[in-house]
Amino acid sequence: MCLVLHQLFYWWWRVTNNLLEQTPPDPAIAAPPVDVMAAITAAAMPTASDVMPAPPAAPATPRWLWFAVGALVTWGFWAFLPKLALKSMQPHSVIFYEALGNLLIAVPVLIYLRGRVMWHRRSVPIAAVLSIMTVSAFMMYFFALKNGPVATIVTLTALYPVIAVLIARVFLGEKLNRLQWAAVCSAVCAALLLAS
Amino acid sequence: MPSILALLVWGVTGFLNKIALRGLPPLHLLVYSAAFFLVNAVLVQLFHEGLEFNQTAALLAVAVGAAGSVGQLLFLMALRDGPLTYVSMISSLYPLVATLLAFFILAEPISLRQAAGIVLGIASIVLLVVARDKQPA
Predict the structure, then answer these.
(1) Quick check: A160 and B11 in contact, CB under 8 A?
(2) Based on the number of CB atoms within 10 Å of its own CB, is A46 exposed (0-12), middle (13-18) or buried (19 or more)?
(3) Which pLDDT belongs to residue A49?
(4) Do B125 and A128 touch (CB under 8 A)?
(5) Which among B62, B94, B120 has CB closest to A101?
(6) Is the per-residue pLDDT at B135 higher than 70?
(7) Main-chain dihedrals φ then ψ at residue A116, nearest 5 degrees
(8) Chain Cα centroid distance, residue A61
(9) ipTM of this complex prediction, to 2 decimal places
(10) Chain B contacts of A113, Cβ < 8 Å?
(11) In which residue ranges of chain A is pLDDT below 50?
(12) What are the φ and ψ backbone dihedral angles of A166, each rounded to 5 degrees?
């Protein structure tokens, strides 16, 4: 428990410091996309920096890869930890403390923005509606998680981008390419398998 | 059934997020989301018997909220330098992490049908992410 909190605090500290240190990348000098498999392989290889002075060279693992893997791991914990919390509390209580946890990140972000949060007459009301729906979805997710297996429920709910794509198709007129249709079909099959 | 409802509602929120991001930068939206989330979480308490407190569970729930926001921030930071496809693909595999955690920590068994569903589900997420870069004009 303490280890998780310590790790979260460390991530928070790293994130906020990185945000403060970073400047927006110049598109003109932006690095080209890096092959992920090559980057992962390079990260797994032992380095010789411990035994001899390293020659000046480009870092083997791009920084964005660490951030992406960090997002993967933290979201994994985000999906799994409620199962443990729900053993001792009801979903409505877990939602409240989760909201406090959100503030642990939102407040430093607000400080980083120097308290100047933009106002947009359309987006802010949408954000308000969004949060109502998100809280409702979390309540349902927590009810499901309290009684069901983590793997099934997390995978099933992680398919929500398919719904978003279909809604965008209907309301925004966005066209789906073959890969997206394949994803939709695959998701429907997955949902049927997981829900049965 | 609740998980399918959550899937549908989250699908709509994914769409609305896209609309909201047209007018607000991600960090600003994160602040608004956290504030509104807290207001709604307080309102939810009115419909229930009262707020429970269990130290371990409360800390875990706080960690859930922090982990969700940290994940979002890390995702945004990865997107600043990295290619959208790879960043989204890597981070969208989080159900795999949750499944492994459940398997090792809670010793949850996984049936063959569930495993097939999980593999298909993750494949569809990856397909969607890959397809995003090949959106027709």
Answers:
(1) yes
(2) exposed
(3) 39
(4) no
(5) B62
(6) no
(7) -95, 90
(8) 20
(9) 0.82
(10) 27-28, 31
(11) 1-3, 5, 9, 15-52
(12) -65, -40
